Amino acid sequence: MTIVPQAEEHGTAGTHEPKTIAGRSPAQLAWSRLRCDKVGMVSLMVIIVVTVIAVGAPLIAHVFGLQPNAFHDELIGDGALPKFGPLNSGISLAHPLGIEPSTGRDIMARLLYGSRVSLLIASLGTVFTVAIGVTVGLIAGYSGGRVDALFGRLMDLILSFPQLILLIALSPILIQVLNDRFGLEGNSARVTFLILVFAVFGWPYIARIVRGQVLSLREREFVEAAVSTGASTRRILVHEILPNLWVPIIVYATLLLPGYIAAEAALSFLGVGVIEPTATWGKMLSDSVTFYQVDPLYLFIPGTSLFIVVLAFNLLGDSMRDALDPRAGRA
Amino acid sequence: MDKAKIGLRCGALASAAVLALTACGSSGGGGGSGSGSGASGGNNKGGTLTILTQAEQMAHIDPQRDYVGEDMAFTSGYLVRTLTAYQLSKDGTKSGQLVGDLATDTGKASDGGKTWTFTLRDGVKWQDGTGVTCADVKYGVSRTFAQSVITDGPTYAIQLLDIPKAADGTSTYKGPYETAKNDTAAYDKAVGCSSDNKTITFHLNRPAGDFNYTVTLTAFAAVPKSKDTGEKYDDKIFSDGPYMVTENTKGQQLVLDRNPNWSAATDSYRPALPDKIVMKFSLQTSVIDQRMEADAGADKSAISRDALDTPSLTTVFNDQRFASRRINEYDPYVYYLAINTTKVPNLKHRQAIMAAMDRAQILTIYGGSYAGDVADGVVKPNLKADYAPTGLWDTLLGAKVPDSGDPELAKKLIAESGAPMPTITYDYGQGPAEDKEAASIQASLAKAGITVKINPIPRGQRNSVEMNPATEGSLEWTAWAPDWLNASTVIPEMFTPSGGWPLSRANDKAFNDKAAAAKAELDRAKQGTMWQELSKEAMANAWAVPLRFSRTQRLAGSKVGAVSGINGQVYLWAPYGSWSYADLYVKK
């Protein structure tokens, strides 16, 4: 059944006359709303650029001759500081963003390769967190009763753990298990460890949100209708309820990802993250803290990059929420 | 002594010092006190000296368990009197000389150096007013033998005292806590007290011309039997020094207040000027450095127990403001990488590791010239008689090797070895500079085709992982300093199976015999030549890769002075490469 198209709320002044009157799906509507949101578009561009850079890092490094792990200790003077560059940063034509104190490794190259690891950990962590959280939230919210109570207590339990302390205490043991049982070595073990840990401690948050939504959704008429026509629970969850949850899920995911980038930074700072010689933005940040008084740019440059990416994701999340459901967030 | 548990050290490092080595080991010797120039007593008495550290606690204050140079300087300066002590002096030569502390002089040797006698001072009291007797010293020394309770301390008492060994190599005397199957009679024969309880005699199992240096270790200090709480003694020890422990809270602070029963008349060694000593634990390194640089308020009368962090060096040493309170001196340590011969049995493989290592890069990572000099062996030049250039980087590897390493030579050595190069696991304790060093080692060895797997160990656990043959890797990060001014506390400790830190797991019978002969040699000059040869042989066997002869940089608050410093200025005390805790004071 064709629907008479609604008048556009904002955007192009009505000179555009479609040849045929066709309905637009919610996705298309959302996209056109997003397109008009300048902040959202800029954020999206930034994220796309960062993703392309991260994915294409080896190619870019090959083209520009960047080596993230090459030591240049001839450029480092006494006191472990670069011998030249404004504010002891080592910035020069050969090293546009400067060099790392102590080792002389190129910062631009390390930022480039660092973005891969950071984004890999953050995105996989987000995917798993959301997958587990949504599944549990759906089941708990829809089932109610004992199942809901059980999951509820499980969520309470996980949320009550002092996560950071537990992580630091357990990391050597868990990494050893990954080494022995699963044959993962070095950084693959650590990256896996980080992703697992994010997923295990992160899912209760989104599970609660989803459960809350499901609790209200399951009382709605269309769900009642589906139940009365004999739809299976799985069908109801996947085809009726889940589509209505995309908004909070997507918004939450876009806010979760930068949180994980920052969390990886914090864990690297504490020494339970990725190990040398791999660079991640978090590690660069943690290394730079002790040098900030004598080489502030070493802190500023990765810090700004991290800030821009996190901000872009946050703003995109806001814009997507506005685009997907303009009424959400308004009283 | 090892760096991480911060072992022990003795060494007059200060650069230009010429050591009068014949002063070591001779019998007798006057018992002067250590105070030199600078005001003492009177006008600088009082105040609270604060010591800042990132450590959670002092590793051990129990005198028989303390093996950390900095800690021993602290405890022997304030709490624990030892039979003999090093002079308090900025001058490296003078500070390498002994004075009698608990003893009236630096001891008398007889029987060719196999028997040593010390007469205790009169009037020395414990913090409860009871007198310190020979029985207390004898009891203290006996505690080392209880190795299951009294852990981590130096084991020289077990090595040197004339007590028979059981079939399994352990001593037949098991310490004062065991009643069954314990050869207490043997201990009584080895350590004897005179009838007036004022003279103690040690009977050794081999001649030791330097035993009076050995007893500067707090392991040979007195402990009253009635106050011994075994393992718990480490929380609060009983003091016979100018201060006593009032609080020892891990992660918080250690507080020392004046010992009312200490009398300056019996102790000319310690000026004991501050009224209170507080050590604050668990501070962040960068914060400590910032506080010391800022020198504000109470921090004026503070010092940092830890060395300055590398990033702070440029600020402190390029700015004249810090001139009167900064120190940049050689410390007693040699930093090296032990090569585990059980994991890398092929000599040419080990030599390839030595050849490929980029030692200049590692020095840069630790701060360049602030970090010290590139080393050519495990014996540091401060051990004057025992040091000679080993020629490691000139000839021992078959060619001259630059400080930046020679991957081609390494490849050649591997080809000559006739066996494929094993994968090397590198153990080290995590830290910002240590992580970068690991990356550097991995990269420079990779250039020679050697695969290195790095194994970062959480701080505090490194010793147990490295010392355990089951968990030890192929290449170990470590550092060592001599326990007193003799390479007998370096070479046998590292390279013989009975040593205290044998990470190389070396067991060459001819080498072991030569080391034993050198230890027993009474002629100091001859002994020095023997150590020089053994040092060279150890490098020829590629049992360790020497990295650097290190320096340390420290900063003190503007109101902290040292009695025997020049114009009262603080200095690095050579015997332990530490602050001269005993004679620090707070200026008004």
Structure report:
The complex is a heterodimer of chains A (331) and B (588). Chain A has a single domain, classed as Orthogonal Bundle (MetI-like fold). Chain A is globular, with a radius of gyration of 24 Å. The two termini of chain A are 33 Å apart. Chain A contains 12 helices and no strands. With 331 residues, chain A is mainly α. Chain A has helices at 26-35, 38-55, 57-64, 107-143, 145-160, 163-182, 186-217, 221-228, 233-241, 246-269, 281-289, 296-324. Residues 7-12 of chain A have low confidence and may be disordered. In chain A, α4 packs parallel to α7, α6 (163-182) packs across α7 and α10 (246-269) runs antiparallel to α12 (296-324). With 588 residues, chain B is of the alpha+beta class. Chain B has 2 domains: 21-280 and 556-586, D-Maltodextrin-Binding Protein, domain 2 (3-Layer(aba) Sandwich); 330-551, Dipeptide-binding Protein, domain 3 (Roll). Chain B has 17 helices and 21 strands. Chain B has a 6-stranded mixed beta sheet with strand order 13-17-12-16-14-15. In chain B, strands 8-9-10-1-11 form a 5-stranded mixed beta sheet, with helices on one face. A 4-stranded antiparallel beta sheet of chain B has the order 4-5-7-6. In chain B, α9 packs antiparallel against α12 (407-417) and α16 packs antiparallel against α17. The model of chain B is unreliable at 2-41 (pLDDT under 50). Chains A and B meet through loops of A and α7, α8, α10, α13 and β15 of B.
Characteristics:
heterodimer; A: 331 residues; mainly alpha; MetI-like fold; 12 helices; 0% strand; B: 588 residues; alpha+beta; D-Maltodextrin-Binding Protein, domain 2; Dipeptide-binding Protein, domain 3; 2 domains; 6-stranded mixed sheet; 5-stranded mixed sheet; 21 strands; 18% strand; globular; disordered N terminus
What fold name stands as the CATH topology of chain A? MetI-like fold
Oligomer: heterodimer
According to CATH, what is the class of the largest domain in chain B? Alpha Beta
What is the name of the CATH class of chain A? Mainly Alpha
Overall number of structural domains of chain B = 2
Poorly predicted sequence stretches spanning 5 or more consecutive residues of chain A? 7-12
Instruction: Please identify, by name, the CATH architecture of chain A.
Output: Orthogonal Bundle
Percent in strands of chain A: under 5%
